[in-house]
Amino acid sequence: MQPEALMLYKLIILYILDKVDFPLTNAQLTDFILEKQYTNYFNVQQVLSDLLGDGFITCHTVRNSSYYEITAAGGETLSFFSDTVSSAIRDDIDIFLKENKYSLREENSTQADYYEAKKNEYIAQLKVSERGSNIIEINLSVPSEAEANLICANWKKKSSEIYAKLFSILANEPEL
């Protein structure tokens, strides 16, 4: 890969991450770049790895999804070189984010993961976040990995319903 192209791909990813106030997944970043045919999958993965190694982005992983955010160093680097990204590419990114920001945020706001606490006990960690704050966070202890996995899978589908019911139950005055 040419050094100029490599730098451009890095700046594209930094520009995207700088424009959102929530983390984006590897899939979300990759899908956009591949859809616009800026480069191929392998180059995107190389660029993400380089940006991580350089400290320009951070990554945390939840259940096979990697979530990326720009760091202060990444933002500073972008400010120095942002003119390297053509106005056409910046426009593509801005339009994409304007049209998809809500769905991207929604997709990433509901998280579920689990871990083994001790033999025959798993903790399912369930959370809904908005703008960096947890709206709800639940840790459930279950006896098997299969149950923990099922709970995590269902959380994405049912978190809104669970939150509404829990809020309704807790917000009502107790009967005497």
Give the arrangement of secondary structure elements.
Blueprint: H1 3-18, E1 24-25, H2 26-35, H3 41-54, E2 57-62, E3 65-70, H4 72-81, H5 87-109, E4 110-118, E5 121-130, E6 133-142, H6 145-171
Helix pairs in contact: 1-3, 1-4
Characterise this structure.
By secondary structure, this protein is α+β, with helices and mostly antiparallel strands. It has 2 domains: 3-108, Arc Repressor Mutant, subunit A (Orthogonal Bundle); 109-171, no CATH class. Helix content is 57%, strand content 24%. The strands form 2 sheets. Strands 1-3-2 form a 3-stranded antiparallel sheet. Strands 4-5-6 form a 3-stranded antiparallel sheet. α1 packs across α3 (41-54) and α1 packs across α4. The chain starts with a helix and ends in a 5-residue tail after the last helix. The model has no long low-confidence stretch (mean pLDDT 89).
